[in-house]
Specification:
The complex is a heterodimer of chains A (289) and B (277). With 289 residues, chain A is mainly alpha-helical. Chain A contains 10 helices and no strands. Chain A folds into 2 domains: 54 residues, no CATH class; 225 residues, no CATH class. In chain A, α5 runs parallel beside α9 and α7 crosses α9. The longest helix of chain A has 40 residues. Chain A starts with a helix and ends in an 8-residue tail after the last helix. With 277 residues, chain B is an alpha/beta fold. Chain B has 2 domains: 168 residues, P-loop containing nucleotide triphosphate hydrolases (Rossmann fold, 3-Layer(aba) Sandwich), CATH 3.40.50.300; 74 residues, no CATH class. Chain B has 10 helices and 10 strands. In chain B, a hairpin with a 2-residue loop joins β4 and β5. Classes of the chains: A mainly alpha (289), B alpha/beta (277).
């Protein structure tokens, strides 16, 4: 962009009008880049869906990806869930105790975990652990012509490389989210009832009263969108990787950053939609206080 | 020079035909008005300095890149007009040896060589294993490399595994992208011998892109020299020479003779002038 700016400045008149012309040129170029980037990403999605519904990949391409995405992510997601559950209790206990509402901690923490923190943290960990790795792997394949080699041997790279990763993220993020939820609930309950000696019976009773099936469904439902976004963004970044080690590094970093921002945006939008659905179906739903 | 005359007499008709082919990346044209015909059984070497568009030409022939102008006719069919499915069918008729071999890192040698067989044939595991071993033997690799990963192999071995993979489906045409680049002189000549042997053993048309004149002279029936568009006048053709390798030394264009002799001439001064401007 800076280069194009410099180029423009040689051809444009000096002064205010010249600077305005430069600015308009740069803005136009940025808009065109954005639109063509979005169009490229949309075509990438369409091709992936075309192959997804056209022909499923073979077992030998699906299983290693599922193992990498699901099984190897399980420990780190379980650990994160456990600690987040415990940290939430630590952070909220003093305030709740000052109001003599510490037995309501379970409701607040478990609701936060199941609806928000479980899905978002599981997705963030997946974006960091799997998304960056997918972008770097596919980026390296692009740079070293392995993707061209696939195409030259009559294998479609989207069908062979993207569809198994997409399926892995889409189908395995719900169980990973449930695992994050479960470990968070267990971690919170352990810290609250054993170490802070909150009454166990009321802790669980309040949790049961306020955390319903819809909350669990909402979290898992959102996670499906997060998983699809992580896979598509990471694969797209890898496929469009710039040459060289720097290009691969940038692909891995942008894959995580774009995935994370998309997760937050989707979380907000889906949160609003699901809340609207919830209060439409159950207008007299119980409130916490 | 290879003894390909018999094959040429038998076939003779063009297998690949490039008509007014042009490729540009954004605002940068790389190929312009290329007209080239490659006969069945022929071995064509495309030579030229780095950045002149040799690899782009090779990738356009197999349909990895789409031309922005003109057509690529393979066996009479315009590749750019084919659907992805039909293009895939045509690509199976090609073998491609990439510059750095482009072996799949995550697979071992056997899985790499057998990849196209597993993708496109219904052969049993035993048959595939036999084919893999036969192809590896053909390129002079021992059986015990089958379990090795590409990262464990030397540059020459990787190239040979790449060649074995390119041969796996018994293609009608093999495209070699800089087959000897980065190899020592002995291994370069081994690759040259393998290219010649491949043509002796299989009825195959070969197109190789190289800037190694030794390879071009030893392997090719015909040599075409490309010149970078950035240093060409608008009215000049991009192919400066098209003929048998033994006539290239006496080419009329001094730029061809300069390339063949490997002389820098005024090139350094020209590059400095260009950078200054």
């Amino acid at each position: 962009m800076a280069t194009s700016s410099n180029l423009h400045s040689h051809n444009q008149p000096e002064g205010f009008l010249g600077r305005m012309a430069d600015w308009v040129c740069d803005l136009g170029e940025t808009v065109i880049d954005w639109v063509s980037g979005l169009g490229d990403a949309a075509l990438f999605w369409l091709r992936t869906f075309g192959w997804l519904f056209g022909r499923l990949p073979r077992k030998e391409t699906i299983l290693p990806n599922f193992y990498q995405i699901g099984v190897l992510s399980l420990p780190v997601i379980a650990l994160t869930g456990t600690f987040i559950g415990m940290v939430l209790v630590v952070q909220s206990y003093v305030q709740f105790r000052s109001l003599h509402l510490e037995t309501h901690l379970g409701a607040v923490i478990n609701m936060s975990l199941v609806r928000e923190l479980g899905p978002v943290l599981a997705a963030t960990m997946l974006a960091g652990r799997v998304g960056s790795s997918m972008a770097a792997e596919l980026g390296t394949m692009r740079v070293t012509e392995q993707i061209d080699a696939l195409t030259s041997m009559g294998a479609n790279p989207i069908h062979y490389l993207v569809v198994p990763r997409f399926l892995g993220c889409l189908l395995l993020i719900p169980p990973l989210t449930i695992m994050a939820d479960f470990m968070g609930v267990v971690g919170g309950a352990f810290y609250g009832t054993y170490l802070l000696e909150i009454d166990s019976h009321h802790y669980w009773e309040n949790s049961q009263q306020f955390v319903g099936n819809f909350d669990l469904f909402a979290g898992v439902f959102k996670s499906l969108f997060f998983g699809a976004a992580i896979a598509m963004i990471s694969c797209h970044r890898g496929f469009n990787c710039d040459p060289g080690a720097e290009g691969v590094g940038r692909a891995a970093t942008t894959a995580f950053v774009y995935s994370f921002v998309t997760i937050l945006l989707l979380d907000l939008v889906l949160g609003i939609v699901l809340d609207t659905v919830y209060y439409t179906i159950w207008p007299d739903a119980p409130t916490l206080f | 020079m290879v003894q390909a005359t018999e094959n040429q007499n038998r076939w003779g008709q063009p297998l690949v035909k490039l008509e007014r082919l042009g490729v540009r990346f954004g605002k940068n044209p790389v190929l312009r008005d290329i007209n080239l015909s490659i006969d069945r059984g022929e071995t064509l070497a495309i030579i030229g300095e780095s950045g002149c568009g040799k690899t782009v030409l090779l990738k356009t022939i197999i349909g990895l890149l789409r031309p922005t102008q003109g057509t690529v006719l393979f066996d009479g069919q315009d590749l750019a007009a084919l659907s992805e499915r039909l293009l895939t069918r045509q690509r199976i008729r090609f073998g491609f040896l990439f510059q750095q071999a482009a072996l799949f890192d995550s697979m071992n040698v056997a899985q790499n060589v057998s990849f196209p067989l597993r993708q496109h044939t219904l052969k049993s595991s035993e048959e595939i294993q036999q084919t893999v071993l036969a192809r590896l033997a053909e390129v002079g690799l021992p059986e015990d490399v089958v379990d090795q990963k590409p990262a464990e192999l030397s540059g020459g071995m990787r190239k040979r595994v790449g060649l074995a993979r390119a041969l796996a489906m018994e293609p009608e045409i093999i495209l070699y992208d800089e087959p000897t680049t980065g190899l020592d002189p002995i291994m370069s000549d081994v690759i040259n011998e393998l290219i010649i042997n491949t043509r002796r053993q299989h009825p195959v048309t070969s197109v190789l892109v190289t800037h190694d004149m030794r390879t071009a002279r030893k392997v090719a029936d015909r040599v075409a020299m490309l010149f970078p568009l950035t240093r060409l006048r608008p009215d000049e053709p991009q192919i400066l020479f098209d003929g048998p390798p033994d006539e290239i030394d006496a080419a009329r264009d001094p730029r061809v003779r300069q390339f063949v002799r490997g002389e820098a001439g005024e090139r350094l001064m020209e590059m400095r002038r260009r950078n200054r401007s």
